[in-house]
Every structure is written in C-alpha cells, then in structure tokens.
Amino acid sequence: MNRDLQQSGSEQGANRAAAYASADVALGGSNDEPALGAHLITQRRGYEHHGIYAGNGKVIHYAGFAKSAHRGPVEEVSLEQFADGHVVAVRPHPFPKFSGEQTVLRARTRLGENHYRLLTNNCEHFCAWCLLGESRSEQVHECLTHPRAGVHALLCLVSAFVGNRMKIGHAVVNAV
Prior knowledge:
The structure is a single chain. The longest helix is centred in the last third of the chain and has 29 residues. The chain has one domain: endopeptidase domain like (from Nostoc punctiforme) (endopeptidase fold (from Nostoc punctiforme)), CATH 3.90.1720. Strands 1-6-2-3-4-5 form a six-stranded antiparallel beta sheet. The chain has six helices and six strands, in the order H-E-E-E-E-E-H-E-H-H-H-H. With 176 residues, it is an alpha+beta fold. Helix 1 packs across helix 5 and helix 3 crosses helix 4. 47% of the residues lie in helices and 20% in strands. This is Cell wall-associated hydrolase. InterPro entries: H-rev107_PLA/AT, LRAT_dom.
C-alpha cells in the first residue's frame, strides 16, 4: 500500500512539473517587462534556471554554478545577464503567499548569501521561498523520483560545468 502511495505521489509531482512547464509564458520583445516579483525561468541544457524579477530590468537569482566553476551567491543582475542568451519565461503562481513587492524584498534579504546546494538550496528553492515562503524544487523532486531523469540532469550539469571551466580557461589564456 505504501508503494501505491509513493507512486501516486510521484505521479502528482510529475503532473505538477508538467503543469508548470505548460503554463510558462515566454517573454516577447524588448518592451515586454515582467511584473514585479515574477518568477522567471530560462531553459538551460538539461535543467531550468530560476530568478525573481526585481524591476528596472534586474533579476535576483542564486548564481550557483551558472557562470563559474565555483558556486556563486544570490546576486542581482540584468535581465540579459540572467538570460545568458536563452529565452526567458514567466512561471505563473496563481496563489503566491507574498505580493510582488514583498517577494522582491524577501529576495533582497538574501543578497550575498553563498550557501548554494544543488539538492537543498538551489535557484528554484530560492524562488519558491521568495514567493511561497517554503523552500522546494520540482526539478530536484523529479530527479529523485525518476532516476532516468536524474541521471540525464546530472550528465547535463557535468557537461555545463566542464563547458564553463573551458570558457574560463579560454578567457584567461586570451587575457594573457
């Protein structure tokens, strides 16, 4: 019976993740500004990167390993830097616990925090905490409940990590 409950929990998680992905709204042209406190996502190779729109073309996100071989802190960057050449979409939250302004204020309280942990404190956990008051990640849940998806995500992260290290090494060589 517990196995049936676990399966239905996994199915619920898969359904939640699919519902989120299908509800994401891609940002259009340069005049398409998200609402204050909007949950932004970009599809990266094998995973999604998450941030909170802070207004005036700025995004607060957990940098993690997005740009470096070393984990990065919660930081405020331009929308262009956050996108890093990828399409940006808004993930709707029909019933956020906090208003857009409160969400941004919560995000700002963590600026400079450098306690990134892939499984327990990543960019998606950060956004969920800012909007909903609870730290959670559908991506992590999916990877832990669907091993094939987890292995695929891990391989993509390793590939991105190696790619970032090569970019950094190439930039250092060119600078010298």
